[in-house]
Give the backbone structure.
Amino acid sequence: MTTTAIRPRSLAPATTRGLLTCGVLAGPVFVLTGVVQGLTRAGFDFTRHPASVLSNGSLGFLQITNFLVTGLLTIAAAAGIRRVLPGRWGPRLLTVYGVSLLCAGVFRADPQDGFPAGTPAGPPASISWHGTLHFIVGGIGFAALVAACFAIGSHLTPARAWYSRISGLLFLAGFAGVASGSASPAVILGFWAAVAIAWIWLATTSVHLMPRGESR
């Protein structure tokens, strides 16, 4: 009876570390999967296309799976952060971002500007219902991520808090650029950089919080 009573408590720190490890893995999985596809799929150009358009074409299932896997990893990371931080809004907002990634996988972005190969140059002539939903859930998720950077940062050390705020603002700037409709290579590349910054923030924050999980 004693062993049975102690076992759930002894597993708790390992479970928390496992959840936070998901936050470390989410970014590399998303970015590496997107970059490898971008380098190997015909018609894709990092200066013209966001990762979302990779959901199209015969290999589109790879990016759809990427969205779904990283969405689940992000939700798991939010659960781990909730275990070690007193505030609740940060993990909730991060969960919203994770759910938006799942929805981005379900609601595929429209082909555009030469991708997949054979697609006419320029923006889509018309936006499909799933392309519209992709943009909506993306906007909600990105806003939640920016807010999560501020909410989670408020419970960290002053240096980490500033890092979280700056990461959130840089991501907001990158998203604002593509949301403006600009097709400038600098804007598209800036958004890729902003996405990387956000994932690095989640990974480093998860690592920073792991010692707090030892006693949870």
Observations:
- The CA atoms of residues 10 and 190 lie 45 Å apart.
- The first helix runs from residue 2 to 40.
- The helical segments are 2-40, 60-84, 89-106, 129-153, 158-179, 185-213.
